[in-house]
């Protein structure tokens, strides 16, 4: 038996810390058993735990879109017993039992080995949020954005994606502007590398289809009207990496920035990104941000604390990243 957060929908939805048999776990598609050492608590996990979003595609389900740990047994050629491995996304916590669990049964080919300078805690300190930030930064670099061309705007700056994006862009020499409604916390943004802070609240309202071109690029986690306003403020030939929809999935705007300023809107998918993109993103992180730096920006909680913290996350009462110690 092993312990895990367990989502059920009969007779009504519930999330509890439960004891589950390995026999049930082995019914999942996989060839590799992992002893999970750490997971994370992302906003997506909080939605699943609180039943605020249709994250779990079937029930019962174990939430948790990230995990890192040690291989206990494997029939895969990709990993062997004793390897330290991790995984982000790929259906975990949605249609496959996820990482908020003492054990996980996965396909070895979907697992990545730890970067040499990171521990299992470190990769979970980044988690899907940090990895998504790295995917976004990598895409902007591919599109030709360079430090000497001007500022980069990062929305959702107190969240995991925004925080790591600011840290990474700053390390690469970019001038970063943090877009946030929490403008009373300037010291936090300065500490992680932002040059200045912009109030996000005006971005929630409709603006002109073309506004003053202030930024060479942006990373956006909000979507909806804020994304429209961000695109309207991008300089000629700039780019926006869109990786979230915290304010909504709609895009109530104009094509004007794209056809009159040549702005590129690049979508970022972290869930099913190919292995090559994942490895490139993690190399970008490991080359630029040390384990010590990211550890200082996260809080560790236990598996039993995940449910109450998830509720606070949904209510907007927390800032930053949470690593969940499983064992």
From TrEMBL:
It comes from Ignatzschineria cameli. CDD domains: MDR_yhdh (cd08288). SMART domains: PKS_ER. GO terms for molecular function: acryloyl-CoA reductase (NADPH) activity. Pfam families: ADH_N, ADH_zinc_N. Residues 15-324 form the Enoyl reductase (ER) domain. This is Enoyl reductase (ER) domain-containing protein.
């Amino acid at each position: 038996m092993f312990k895990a957060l367990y989502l059920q929908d009969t007779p009504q939805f519930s999330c509890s810390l439960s004891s589950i048999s390995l026999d049930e776990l082995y019914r999942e598609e996989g060839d590799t058993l992992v002893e999970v050492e750490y997971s994370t608590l992302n906003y997506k996990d909080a939605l699943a735990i609180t039943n605020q979003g249709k994250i779990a595609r079937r029930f019962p389900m174990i939430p948790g879109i990230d995990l890192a740990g040690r291989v206990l047994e494997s029939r895969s050629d990709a990993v062997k017993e004793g390897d330290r491995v991790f995984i982000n996304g790929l259906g975990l916590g949605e249609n496959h039992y996820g990482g908020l669990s003492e054990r996980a049964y996965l396909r070895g080919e979907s697992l990545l080995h730890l970067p040499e300078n990171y521990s299992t805690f470190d990769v979970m300190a980044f988690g899907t949020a940090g990895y998504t930030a790295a995917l976004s930064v990598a895409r902007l670099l591919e599109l030709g954005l360079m430090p000497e061309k001007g500022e980069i705007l990062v929305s959702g700056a107190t969240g995991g994606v925004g925080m790591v994006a600011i840290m990474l862009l700053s390390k690469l020499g970019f001038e970063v502007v943090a877009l946030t409604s929490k403008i009373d916390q300037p010291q936090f943004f300065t500490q992680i590398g932002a040059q200045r802070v912009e109030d996000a609240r005006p971005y929630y309202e409709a603006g002109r289809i073309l506004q003053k071109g202030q930024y060479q690029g942006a990373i956006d986690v909000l979507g909806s009207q804020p994304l429209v306003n961000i695109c309207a403020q991008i300089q000629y030939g700039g780019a926006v990496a869109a990786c979230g929809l915290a304010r909504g999935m709609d895009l109530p705007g104009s094509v004007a920035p794209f056809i009159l300023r040549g702005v590129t809107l690049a979508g970022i998918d972290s869930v099913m990104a190919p292995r090559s993109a994942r490895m490139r993103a993690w190399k970008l992180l490991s080359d630029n941000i040390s384990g010590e730096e990211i550890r200082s920006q996260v809080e560790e909680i236990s598996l039993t604390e995940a449910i109450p913290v998830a509720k606070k996350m949904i209510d907007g009462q927390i800032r930053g990243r949470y690593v969940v110690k499983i064992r």
